[in-house]
Amino acid sequence: MSEYYNLIQIIAGIAAVALIFTGVLLSVKKLNPERYETIPVKSTVISTAFIAAGLLCYAIVKTCTNLTVVTEEHYDVSTIYFASLVEVIKMFGFIIFVPLLFRLFKPKTKKKENPEEEITGE
Predict the structure, then answer these.
(1) What pLDDT shows up at residue 57?
(2) Which of 49, 64, 100, 115 has its CA 20 to 30 A from that of 94?
(3) What is the DSSP string of 12-56?
(4) Which of 1, 64, 51, 44 lies closest to 22, judged by CA?
(5) Burial, 33: exposed, middle or buried (Cβ in 10 Å; 0-12, 13-18, 19+)?
(6) Phi and psi for 74 in degrees, rounded to 5?
(7) What's the pLDDT at 12?
(8) Contacts of 63 (CB under 8 A, 6+ apart)
């Protein structure tokens, strides 16, 4: 089984990068500072789910790394996966909040298109 760890790491790593990139890209595509609208809740939830799935895939990469290191200490695979998941959440868990931050920090008011006209009108 140890000969498949590198293959599993490569596949899970590519999937993790693709899912995290897709999640961030979905929320960035909905940003439009010219319209002054918030990002819809549905796209925020979907992009957060993509990012969370990407972090879970990255936990698989960390698990394969930890399995090669901890071969002589007969731990269960689920124990090593949960330890790797906690490590990933401690290091990269903040990425889950990126779509929420994009949703919260929107422009509050519209810019005035012609400020010179308003000054002369007063």
Answers:
(1) 95
(2) 64
(3) HHHHHHHHHHHHHHHHHHT--TTTT-PPPHHHHHHHHHHHHHHHH
(4) 51
(5) exposed
(6) -10, 60
(7) 94
(8) 77, 80, 81, 84
Reported as a pLDDT band with limits 50, 70 and 90, residue 76 is confident
How many whole angstroms separate alpha carbon 2 and alpha carbon 77? Answer: 13
Measure the CA–CA gap between 5 and 13, rounded to whole angstroms. Answer: 12
Give the length of the chain: 122
Predicted model pTM: 0.79
Q: Would you say 8 and 60 are in contact if contact means Cβ atoms under 8 Å apart?
A: yes
- How large is the greatest C-alpha to C-alpha distance in the chain, in angstroms? 81
Contact 97, 89 (CB under 8 A): no
